[in-house]
Amino acid sequence: MTYVIFDLCIRDGACVDVCPVDCIVPGIPEAEWPWYYIDPDTCIDCGACVPECPVDAILPEEDLPAAQVYTTELNARYFSAGPGYAALASK
Ligand code: SF4
User: Fold this and answer.
1) Domain enclosing residue 57, as ranges
2) 46 lines ligand 1 (CB under 6 A)
3) pLDDT (tens digit, 9 = 90+) per residue, 35-79?
4) CATH of the domain at 14
5) Using a 6 Å cutoff on CB, does residue 33 contact ligand 1?
6) Mean pLDDT of 19-24
7) Triad 68, 58, 65: Cα angle to 5°
8) Residue in 38, 41, 78 to alter for ligand 1 test, most ligand atoms within 8 A of Cβ
């Protein structure tokens, strides 16, 4: 299981500060990766990020509405095919 950020994300970033394993990173470049993303291999499913999001854009993957299921793969792809943690260095 993992938590997933989906398309309501407004790049507020408050979720980053509370994550105990630092697995939430901003999408860079923003035009290509417009949200923040959660690394599913590092997320420990603590749920701390959920109440921090001002627009409720984070859910456990099993609670995603059908229309948002695709975002699970998208979050994972940011770390496998996108810049992943390297984005933090250029933040
Ligand atoms: Fe980080 Fe916990 Fe949110 Fe996973 S559920 S992204 S570990 S704050």
Assistant:
1) 3-89
2) yes
3) 999 999 999 999 999 999 999 999 999 999 999 999 999 999 999
4) 3.30.70.20
5) no
6) 98
7) 30
8) 38
* Total domains, the chain: 1
Check if 9 has its Cβ closer than 6 Å to any atom of ligand 1. Answer: no
Compute the distance from residue 31 Cα to the ligand 1 centre, in Å.
24
**What string of DSSP letters covers 46-67?**
--TTGGG-TT--EEEGGG--GG
> Does residue 91 carry a pLDDT above 90?
no
Predicted confidence at residue 90, as pLDDT, reads 64
Q: Please give the structure tokens belonging to residue 30.
A: 């923003």
Distance CA 75, CA 85 (A): 12
